[in-house]
Amino acid sequence: MGSSIFLLLCLIGLSQAATEKIYNGTECLPNSQPWQVGLFEGTSLRCGGVLIDRRWVLTAAHCSGSRYWVRLGEHSLSQLDWTEQIRHSRFSVTHPGYRRALRNHDHDLRLLRLGAPVLFTRSVRPLPLPRTCVAPGTECLISGWGTTNGTWTGQFPDRLQCLNLPIISDADCHAAFPGRITANMLCAGGIAGQDACQGDSGGPLVCGGALQGLVSWGSVGPCGQGGIPGVYTKICKYVDWIRMTMRNN
Asked: Which of the ends of the chain has fewer CB neighbours closer than 10 A, N or C?
């Protein structure tokens, strides 16, 4: 316990890199998202992630690192909350269909195995995988740390941000990104000024208490453009692969 607290104190006051971030969200109720994970390389936040088992975190495949300091039970990144747990990811398994060179983020998910299991508490708890796919119009929640003004070099909040967004239809998703949407993706948002943005890649899209999506990609320009939704990995398509991978490793 002492070594974990020492390590945590060494990591406080971190720099934050530009990846997918919440734009125009509000501060989450502390520890209301106990599955939220921050993935760090040294002192830099690289991506978000989702705790789905005592030893497994799910994140985006385009988060290219495989060895992270995994921070759980966080709310403030600069202050000790006394709910934190830190683990190191020992290895990762990227979905075999992912092809980074194609730049379309199809099959954009990766499993990280932690070096030691987490202790489940009120502040550190896994998010269930979905039993069915989510319907258009469903209100869902995204969360993460990062820029709050929709740009690559914007303000980075210290405390976890939350934002509610609706799932949009496949037709509207395809219309927003002609020729780029596959059956393994879903879209949410499209509301001006509300979006995931640069930095929260791999973070959760939570619908009805289950993990329905991972932050994957979106507009080329500023985040939160009206009519341009965020694109998420459609987790209901991967439940069998996720469970098989955890079982076999």
From this structure: N
